[in-house]
Amino acid sequence: MVKVGRTVVTRYNLAYINRLVFGGDHGRVLGYDNAHGEHHRHYMGKTEAVEIGSYEQALDRFQTEWQELVKTLKRPKASKPKRGQRS
Question: What is this structure's pTM?
Fold first, then answer.
């Protein structure tokens, strides 16, 4: 049943693509879609079926995972002491 004035998403594909992070799967680091009649998650070239009830749930899950992933990628590497300096 479709409510008047409400958009219903029937197909979706959410993806974070960054070939510097992952070179396989056309650079798709993280993704969710419902191709082939089922919801599934892509992560670094691996695919798994997931239980998701709606596009909104998939979007929430994708955004949460993407934000956590970006935090790990932005962490500064520990700097090495320069020659002649003590750590």
Answer: 0.73
Strands across the sheet with 28-33, in order?
A: 13-17, 28-33, 40-43, 46-49
Span 21-77, pLDDT tens digits? 999 999 999 999 998 889 999 999 999 999 998 899 999 999 999 999 999 887 666
8: left (phi over 0), alpha (psi -120 to 50) or beta: beta
Say which residues have a Cβ less than 8 Å from residue 48's Cβ, sequence separation at least 6. Answer: 40, 41
Contact (CB, 8 A) for 18 and 69: no
